[in-house]
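Input (structure):
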C-alpha cells in the first residue's frame, strides 16, 4: 500500500494501464501539460493536448475506439460535456447496439465535478444522472483514492464507454492505495460502515458526509449503515436492497440536484423491491435545483452536511417522514 491523493491515484492507474496495453492512449484539454510524466514515458503519439473543442475530442475518441484503440479523454469539468453530448450519447452510447454487438467501443471520458474550489456554475454542475439515463453508457464516481485507481483501471479495460467523474472536493484527499495493478469491478458498491437502524446510501464526497453523520448518530444510540455506490450505472441493486432489508430505513445523499437524480432511482428501487422491509418512507437529501454558487461558503452550503443527514435520520426515527427540501443545513 502507498499513501496517495486521488489525483496521484488516477495518474498511477493511467501509467499502469498504458504500460499494460499499447492500445491505451490519452488526449484532451491540457493532458500532456498536466501529466508530463505520461508524455515523457509514452510520447506524443499516445499523450497529447487538444484544442478546447469537446465535441471534436469526444468524436475523435469514438472513432479511435471503433478502430481498436482504447482512448481516455479528459474534458476537464463536467459542464463541458454539454458540448460533447451528441458524440457521447448518440454515438458512443449507441454504436455497439447499432452494430448488433459486432463491435465494441471502449473509451473513458473523464471530468471533474462538484464543489470544493469555488469555480462557479459553469464549471461546477453534477451531471452524472444525465449520463446514467443514456443507454449504452456506464457511469462511475469514486469516493476514495483506492477506488479512483481501481475504477479507472476497470473503466479502461471495459469494452463499453464509461463516464468517469472525479469529485473536485476529493482531488487532494489522501488515502491508502494498492500498489501495482488494481481493479475495482464496475457495478459493485462498497459497504463503508455496517449498521442496523438506517441505510445511508451515497457516492463521491457525500460518502464522507454520511460517515461523519454515522459517527454523530452513534453517540445518540443510532446504528447507521453507509453504502458507497461507486458505480452509478450499472447500479449495484443487490447491495442496496440487502442494506435496506437489514435496516428498514433509507436515506440517499448526494450533491447533485434533487429532481430526477440518482437518489430518485435508489428510492424507487427500494420502494418497488423492498417495500415490505421499509419502516419509513425513503428520504432524499440532495443539493438544490439551482446553479452552484461561486462563493465558497455558499458552495459548501449547497451540498448536504453531516449535521443535516443526522437531523434527517432523527426525523425519520421520530416518524417525521421524508425531508421536503434539499440541502438542508443544520
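Output (sequence):
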Amino acid at each position: 500500500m502507498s499513501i496517495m491523493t486521488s489525483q496521484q491515484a488516477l495518474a498511477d492507474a493511467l501509467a499502469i494501464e498504458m504500460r499494460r496495453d499499447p492500445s491505451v492512449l490519452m488526449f484532451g484539454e491540457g493532458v500532456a501539460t498536466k501529466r508530463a510524466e505520461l508524455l515523457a514515458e509514452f510520447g506524443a503519439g499516445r499523450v497529447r493536448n487538444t484544442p478546447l473543442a469537446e465535441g471534436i475530442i469526444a468524436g475523435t475518441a469514438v472513432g479511435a475506439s471503433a478502430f481498436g484503440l482504447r482512448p481516455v479523454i479528459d474534458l476537464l469539468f463536467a459542464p463541458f460535456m454539454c458540448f460533447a453530448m451528441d458524440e457521447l450519447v448518440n454515438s458512443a452510447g449507441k454504436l455497439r447496439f447499432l452494430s448488433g454487438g459486432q463491435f465494441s467501443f471502449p473509451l473513458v471520458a473523464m471530468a471533474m465535478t462538484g464543489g470544493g474550489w469555488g469555480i462557479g456554475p459553469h464549471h461546477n454542475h453534477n451531471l452524472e444522472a444525465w449520463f446514467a439515463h443514456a443507454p449504452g453508457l456506464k457511469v462511475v464516481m469514486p469516493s476514495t483514492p483506492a477506488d479512483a485507481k481501481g475504477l479507472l483501471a476497470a473503466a479502461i479495460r471495459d469494452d463499453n464507454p464509461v463516464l468517469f467523474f472525479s469529485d473536485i472536493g476529493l482531488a487532494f484527499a489522501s488515502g491508502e492505495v494498492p500498489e501495482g495493478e488494481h481493479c475495482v469491478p464496475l457495478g459493485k458498491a462498497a459497504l463503508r460502515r455496517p449498521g442496523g437502524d438506517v441505510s445511508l446510501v451515497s457516492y463521491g464526497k457525500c460518502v464522507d458526509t454520511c460517515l461523519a453523520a454515522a459517527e454523530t448518530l452513534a453517540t445518540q444510540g443510532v446504528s447507521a449503515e453507509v453504502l458507497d455506490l461507486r458505480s452509478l450505472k450499472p447500479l449495484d441493486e443487490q447491495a442496496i436492497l440487502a442494506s435496506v432489508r437489514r435496516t428498514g430505513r433509507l436515506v440517499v445523499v448526494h450533491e447533485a440536484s434533487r429532481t430526477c437524480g440518482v437518489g430518485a432511482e435508489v428510492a424507487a428501487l427500494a420502494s418497488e423491491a423492498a417495500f415490505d422491509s421499509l419502516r419509513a418512507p425513503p428520504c432524499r437529501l440532495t443539493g438544490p435545483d439551482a446553479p452552484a454558487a461561486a462563493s465558497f461558503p455558499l458552495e459548501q452550503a449547497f451540498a448536504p452536511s453531516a449535521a443535516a443527514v443526522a437531523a434527517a435520520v432523527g426525523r425519520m426515527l421520530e416518524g417525521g417522514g421524508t425531508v421536503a427540501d434539499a440541502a438542508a443545513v443544520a
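Notes: The longest strand covers residues 70-77. The chain has 13 helices and 14 strands.
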